[in-house]
Automatic annotation (TrEMBL):
It comes from Rhynchospora pubera. This is Ferric reduction oxidase 8. Keywords: Membrane, Oxidoreductase, Transmembrane, Transmembrane helix. GO terms for molecular function: ferric-chelate reductase activity. Residues 303-423 form the FAD-binding FR-type domain.
Amino acid sequence: MAQNSARLLALKLSMGILVAAWISFWILKPTKTWKKAWHSAEDLANDTFLRDSGLNVVVFCFPVVGFAILSFIYLHSSEKEKIRNKTSLTTHFRVTFSKPVILKSPIGVISLGELSGAMLFVAFLFWTYYSNVSSDFKKLAPYPPLKLSRQQLKVMHMGVRVGSLSEFCLAVLLFPILRGMSLLRVFGIEFEAAVRYHTWIANALVLFCTLHGTIIMSIWGQKKRLLAEITSWPKIGRVNVAGAISLISILIIWISSLPVIRRKYFRTFYITHHLYIVFISFFLLHAGDKHFYLVLSGVLLFALDKILRLIQSRRETCIVSAHVLPCRAVELILPKDPGMKYSPMSTIFLKIPSISRFEWHPFSITSSCYKNEEHLSVLIKSQGQWTSELYSKISSIKDEEFGQLKSLSTVGVDGPYGPEHLLHQRYYNLVLIAGGSGITPFMSILNETSSKDSTTNWHPTNIVLIYCVKQVQDISMLTPILPILCQPTAEITNFRLKIFVTQEQGSTMTAFEVLNKPPRVIKMLPSTTKRSVGITQEGLIWRAIIVALAFVIFLISMVLLSDIFVHQVHGKPSRKSNPSWINDLLLFAAFVIAMSCSAVASITFAQRKLRNDRRAMEIPKKVIEEPMGTTDKKSGFLFEPEIYLGKRPNLSDVLSDLTNKIRDESIGVFVCGPDSMKVSVASFCKNHTKISCKNGLSRSVHFHSVNFSL
């Protein structure tokens, strides 16, 4: 145990050093000292086998790739630590930085950590822009082709430097959406929160690209050289037409990503998002290889992530059964490899070819890997185009002909992906507040808490679940967790369920009837030749090897190709004697070689694992014949739900009642639902950090926002 702890500490320090080095490079890059030293370093590198291209790869790419490799090793080693340290310094910082500081904003509730990160991001951009522009203004050189005035030269340089800000945005843009990489898990960031950060950075990228193009083209327009300049393709230097194509592609992506379009026309959003290939390719041609090295680490890891997920998702599984609920929701039961483990609040991506052959949609897993070793479940509410079509297809299956839609049972699975740090396990007193579909992440918490086989030593003393819905029929969303209410367990001793129906009046008997109504169970009759979820998943160490392999192959390919194809002048590579596009093409070729080798290695490993693991060849018949069923409610509720019609929860009363039952522990308040609900709860927790008890003592209240996928 002590040896493993020392190893984890060493890995943390190493990862911290790499991150600090990468950030330092970006901070120092605009300075005069760095530019002078960098030119000297490139000259020295050209005298070695590494060349200037290899130096750029090592300096700007290796820290991030090295961090990803060490992260996989760290996660692999930390899995051996079964007991989570709830009082660790890391957990304390995570709790502190999750406190809400801005409640009402166009982008929802903003925590202390998010605000701090945004301020540092803006400060860095300001520093970079100021340093570059001030340096350019000190050495303005005339531009003969356009005969610009001094003022126009300044504006031109300002526009160019705005474009340099987009480089850093692109460098970090892809990090939040690396689902299969280790970056999210190490920092404990949920997928939906990561997508939020990706959106923020993307908006900044689009802004800087648009300003860059607008300023430059306005100068060309003043000189009546717009068409000539925008279509030029010089032998050496910027390729303006490539920049124009790149700008158009990113604007199309941004427009299709607007909430109004994305929610109503998801397939349009999904298809146009693949224009990122056009954007990145033409960004390389426009900016040149030396600028592309700055963003290479994110592109490299993103491509590897895509390759690994594509290989994994090609192994289709099946839907064992489906539970149709009255609230236009369906619970899908999938077969799971008993050896696959995942944490609560994990996300899984599903693709059903009979609905769409290309669309992947994320959903929160509602089951626990310890309570249901051979099954995995997701609860899907009919809300969008894809989910509505899924519900319509399943609910329309008649009892006597459910086998006729066998094609619907085939499903592609990517994941699961979950956070490494579980903040809810820091508290022994939980208040879970959910609205509508936001109940799904909390279901996995409750299922794992009620499991006797869970490896964690954490068992909460008190749990209060507050569930808010608009209509009575939406209460049926709670059907998957009814076993917790009906069957006694030693793990949950004090559980309270409060249900609030906000937009309907009437008798609570009607609500209880909806809650007790069993779902319609449909057996999909899947093929036993399909594989369970989790079979042939690549391990963490294998992923670390693949990342290291890709980086080494890319570096070697880049060095060799540059040495072979770049003309030599006095024994050194000369960029001036070659068209700029040759260096770009060599970088692209090295990238393709590295990705191809990584793909071949991954496919070979997966096929070998399939041959060695006979369990992967078919799903056990008992998994299909005995799917997860519903609970017999004849014995009644062990924890009687409290149902309120036409009311909204009074959080003050709930917390005051809870504080009178506990001793000296703090209370964790977790909310998952619409932004308006998060703002309301965050505002309350911000104004009531302490809740007084009858005995005069007070308890600390900590707010946490949870994101869900549905």
